[in-house]
Amino acid sequence: MLKEVRNRKFANGIVYALKTEDDYPLEVTDTFLPYYTKDAIGKKQNALTSYELGDRTERWMIGVSCMSGCPVHCKFCATGQLKKFRNLTAEEIFEQVKFIIDKNPDYDPKKAKEFKINYTRMGEPFLNIEEVKKAIKMIDEIYPNTHHYISTIGIKGSDFSWIKGNITLQISLHSLDEEKRNWLIPFYNKYSIEELGQIRTESNLKTTLNLTLVDTSDFDIEKLQKYFDKDKFFIKLSPINENAVSEGNHLGKGVIKGVNLV
Predict the structure, then answer these.
(1) How would you class 223 by CB atoms within 10 Å of its CB: exposed for 0-12, middle for 13-18, buried for 19 or more?
(2) All domains in the chain, ordered by first residue
(3) Is the distance from CB of 90 to CB of 131 less than 8 angstroms?
(4) pTM score
(5) What pLDDT band is residue 48 in, cutting at 50, 70 and 90?
């Protein structure tokens, strides 16, 4: 049983700090957006057109942790402050989803235009992939139309053949300079930028390339065009969510500035 420790509300959702039965911390988010924001590729941007944020009947997104803590220690991620980590079980991942659904009895995931689970909070999913796959199966048995969105740094030796249909892959790229990317993501056993471009899935959607750009020198359009087929990959530019770790590494807010709608 997961225990709620605290929560923080913002304009379009809530982030919860939870603890496992053996007292390991984790984080889960409950967010929503207007349905039109799903068409980022067609619109070539994902900006809100007004301060109307929709509700959970449109795009309902739950961000789950796959680990408590994380061994990757990205230079802008607060999870790296935790001194220890462990993989979460499929049941603990599933329980995060149930926790959010139980918090919102007036909303039915089956009636949302999109019900999406983002495997993007604490941990690297492909370092706990068998439990993640079990959790996906457990969720799909109850909510068969769920969109699963799995974010990875690209662990070497990973099997992507099962990423198909309503499961989408996101790659944490963050820089198109290999040396800079290795500094930002100091995990040795990951694919190179060129190798990431060779990843193929059978998802209904393109693979997302997530770029949390520290500065403009991290972006190289020629390298992007060389390694990443535009018919297979979708580029997402993200802001840095400032925290003690990012500030300690002097990363600032990055190139993309977040918009505070609170």
Answers:
(1) middle
(2) 3-248 (3.20.20.70)
(3) yes
(4) 0.92
(5) low
